Amino acid sequence: PYDDIYTGWAHPPRDYAKWEELVFQWVRHCLGRYGREEVSTWYWETWNEANIGYWKGTFEEFLELHDRAVAGVRRALPEARVGGPDMAGSDPKFLRPFLEHILGKGLPLDFVAFHAKGSPTYVDGHVRMGIAAQLATIDQGFRTIASFPELKRTPIVIGESDPEGCAACQGPPLAYRNGTMYSSYTAASFARKHDLARRHGVNLEGALTWAFEFEDQPYFAGFRALATNGIPLPVLNVFRMFSKMGGQRVPARSSAEVPLDTVLADGVRGAPDVAAFASVEPNRLAVMAWHYHDDDVAGPEAAVDLAVAGLPPTARQATVTHYRIDESRSNAYAAWKRMGSPIAPTRRQYDELEAASRLAVLEEPRSASVTDGTLALTFALPRQAVSLVTIEWD
After folding, report:
1. CA-CA distances (angstroms) from residue 208 to 91, 105, 252, 278, 322?
2. For strand 231-232 and strand 227-228, is the pairing parallel, antiparallel, or unpaired?
3. Contacts of residue 140, Cβ cutoff 8 Å, sequence gap at least 6
4. Predicted confidence (pLDDT) at residue 393 exceeds the cutoff of 90
5. Cα–Cα dist 308/66, whole Å
6. 330 with 360: CB under 8 angstroms?
7. Helix or strand (DSSP H, E) at 88
8. Up-side HSE of residue 7: CA atoms within 13 Å toward CB?
9. What global pTM score does this model have?
């Protein structure tokens, strides 16, 4: 029970000068241990979700806590990146007065941070995700920040960005975690964060998934994690896919994409969302495609016709590599179930699970023809699956 953890640490300090000195000494310790070059890259914020039970003081006391913390950090490291409020959600009744306080006093604000979560439920014997709730929180936060013209280019960090809010909780509504639904949700939601940032004209610097490693637990115990007993879950392979994208985002349009405003209002409850997110860098294009639906029920595959235009007119051949997360690829959970869900895998089984957890290719890299700067591919994309297609040319 969360009420049991809100003890003395959640209350304001009796002496704010001592609090500031504590922060100063902590930063000095970090400088001595890790070095200035490293610590200068860190992001410093004052508290976790001070707008809910983690903080038992008043809003004004939190502002004092924040101001004194920033003073302590900057006294030890003048170039330190400081920001906040790292709140739960993006309620403008908390976020707006915080930003007004910082700007009104001329205090440093190197980034703005808030948290955004979805809200899965269990309906008719299956999980129903709540992507609309998470994206609506992000939309509200971006709108509030964009209302301050001086913050339009200030980096925004979504400090916790997840399908729901309790990594350590278990239960039927959270059964999406081990399989590919977590993967397709992540692909679809991260792409929409960039769409919302572009809509509001703000600077989204990054979003963090809030996941943990739970020790001494059964395999695939149902926690919100990226790995279980050292075996990566399918969702980790989405981040591996993201790591293979670089350069600049380029438009990717789909006839089966659910419009952003529909996702914000209703989620993906009717037709599935079959859409894409693309990036380009010198001599390389990467396209991530997903087949997502809020409801974790079976459905037909999507027949994808991928058309790429605007490749260099001198390109005649390209190397195509197709990575895939689905029921049989990049999916240690499915492999574990096929083994009979062993409680204590043997060494051989563990090695097989580890191999199944790696990001896999749908087909080996192959050569494809480029005609007048265009390239076409076709493939089937199962429900809740994610593909990454990379195209490289000389």
Report:
1. 19, 29, 24, 20, 26
2. antiparallel
3. 90, 91, 92
4. yes
5. 49
6. yes
7. none
8. 3
9. 0.96
Distance (Å, whole) CA 364 – CA 319: 10
Average pLDDT over residues 25-49: 98
Long-range pairs of 73-79 with CB within 8 A, sequence gap ≥ 24:
73/23, 73/24, 73/27, 73/44, 74/108, 75/24, 76/24, 76/25, 76/27, 76/28, 76/31, 77/27, 77/31, 77/36, 77/39, 77/40, 79/40
pLDDT score of 295: 98
At 4 the pLDDT is: 87
Read off φ and ψ for residue 186, nearest 5 degrees: -65, -45
Query: What does the buried/exposed string (b/e) look like for 292-301 if buried means 16 or more CB atoms within 10 Å of the residue's CB?
Result: bbbbbeeeee
Tokens, residue 170? 């278990």
pLDDT digits (tens, 9 = 90+) for 373-387: 999 999 999 999 999
Pairing of strands 155-162, 126-128: unpaired
Collapsed DSSP state (helix, strand, coil) of residue 178: coil
Pairwise CA distance, residues 382 & 293, whole Å? 11
Q: What is the mean pLDDT of the chain?
A: 97
Q: How confident is the model at residue 47 (pLDDT cuts 50, 70, 90)?
A: very high
pLDDT score recorded for residue 3: 82
Residues 6+ positions from 143 with CB-CB distance below 8 Å: 200
- The tokens describing 136, both together, are 């609506």
The number of helix segments (H) and strand segments (E) in the chain equals 10, 17
Burial of residue 28 (CB within 10 Å: 0-12, 13-18, 19+) is middle
The tokens 């495609």 sit on which residue? 289
- 3-state secondary structure (DSSP) of residue 137: helix
295 phi and psi angles, rounded to 5 deg: -90, 125
Q: CB of 346 within 8 A of CB of 219?
A: no
Strands (E), 125-242: 126-128, 155-162, 203-207, 227-228, 231-232
Which 8-state DSSP code applies to residue 133?
Answer: H
The residue among 18, 16, 30 whose CA lies nearest residue 77 is 30
Of 217, 239, 237, nearest in space to 228 by CA: 217
Sign of CA dihedral 22, 28, 31, 36: positive
pLDDT at 196 over 90: yes
Mean pLDDT calculated for residue range 127-146: 98
Three-point CA angle 164, 165, 171, nearest 5° = 70
